[in-house]
Write a structure and sequence with these properties.
This protein has 289 residues and is mainly beta. The chain has helices at residues 3-21, 261-264; strands at 43-51, 69-78, 85-92, 97-108, 112-123, 128-130, 133-135, 138-143, 146-149, 154-163, 190-200, 205-212, 235-244, 247-254, 280-288. The chain contains two helices and 15 strands. Strands 1, 2, 3, 4, 5, 8, 9, 10, 11, 12, 13, 14 and 15 form a 13-stranded antiparallel beta sheet that branches. The longest helix has 19 residues, at 3-21.
Length: 289
């Protein structure tokens, strides 16, 4: 091999590494946002699908696939003049919820990556008080998606989140039998910290997990109408992701039916996550243009 040929190959490899570093990816894992970014004027599309019927409801119901579903469609846009800035809009069938907002990547280091994210959510249904809380609400969510690269293949995600309004805001929280009743309305928003872990098995396949803690104010509260003594549950999602050219397919099992920040991290959406044994199937499809 001549020196000129070797130099050419080295330049190609370096250029390829630079292209990978500047590649776009939809900033979404399962339900939690990542600190990824869409580059230049690239467009990312995410299609989400959540089955509501639990898998444990037997094979006669196709393990939940015969039940109701909530589908969502979202777009994320790169904004070329400001590096790392993305705009996004998403709509899901759960209460016909629209979210719109901005995400700015503020750190892209070798071991830590971080972004600032703000979004407004609107449930486009008539505001109504139900046994599980209010629907038809509007609010704002602030998040700080942070990713720590433990190794090249193992990524820990921490997503501090503040939600200005939830389904039980301004209502008196019900409590299980034997607990002192609440006499004051549940005021203010909710702070929570979603946690995720991703492990790359191969270049294309990854194991993905997310955990949605129960907010402290709900620890001794019960979903309205529930009289079996249980409180709000912790949420989780776990599955496998397959990434190919400009596509990412993710199949999960989860006890949280929602997909937006106010749905999975508020702790009280739709009565909160189901019991861990009542998990159901969901999937995401992401595409970069």
């Amino acid at each position: 091999m001549t020196r000129k040929t070797a130099s050419l190959i080295a330049c190609v490899l370096l250029a390829g590494g630079g292209l990978r570093a500047e590649s776009s990816d939809v900033p979404l894992v399962i339900n939690l946002p990542s600190a990824e970014r869409m580059q230049f004027w690239d467009i990312g599309v995410a299609f989400t699908h959540r089955f509501i019927q639990p898998v444990k409801d037997h094979g006669k119901d196709a393990y939940g696939l015969d039940g109701y579903t909530y589908a969502g469609l979202g777009f994320t846009f790169g904004i070329k003049p400001i590096k790392g800035l993305n705009a996004f809009i998403y709509r899901t069938a759960d209460n016909k919820t629209f979210t719109v907002g901005l995400q700015q990547q503020v750190l892209n280091g070798d071991h830590v990556r971080m972004a600032l994210r703000a979004e407004r959510f609107d449930e486009v249904v008539k505001e109504t008080v139900t046994p599980l809380g209010k629907v038809g609400i509007t609010g704002v969510t602030f998040q700080l998606p942070t990713e720590i690269f433990v190794t090249d293949d193992l990524i820990l995600s921490v997503v501090p989140t503040y939600i200005t309004r939830t389904t039980t805001t301004d209502t008196i929280l019900a409590v299980p039998p034997g607990v002192t009743p609440n006499t004051k309305p549940n005021k203010g928003g909710v702070f929570n910290v979603g946690v995720g872990l991703r492990y790359g098995i191969t270049e294309k396949f990854s194991i993905v997990t997310e955990y949605y803690p129960r907010p402290s104010k709900l620890a001794k509260a019960a979903p309205g109408g529930i009289t079996d003594g249980s409180t709000y549950q912790q949420g989780f999602a776990a599955g496998i992701s397959y990434k190919t050219f400009k596509h990412r397919f993710t199949l999960v099992g989860t006890n949280a039916s929602g997909t937006t920040a106010n749905q999975v991290l508020s702790g009280d959406y739709g009565g909160g996550p189901r019991l861990s044994s009542q998990w159901s199937i969901g999937f995401n499809v992401a595409r970069v243009f």
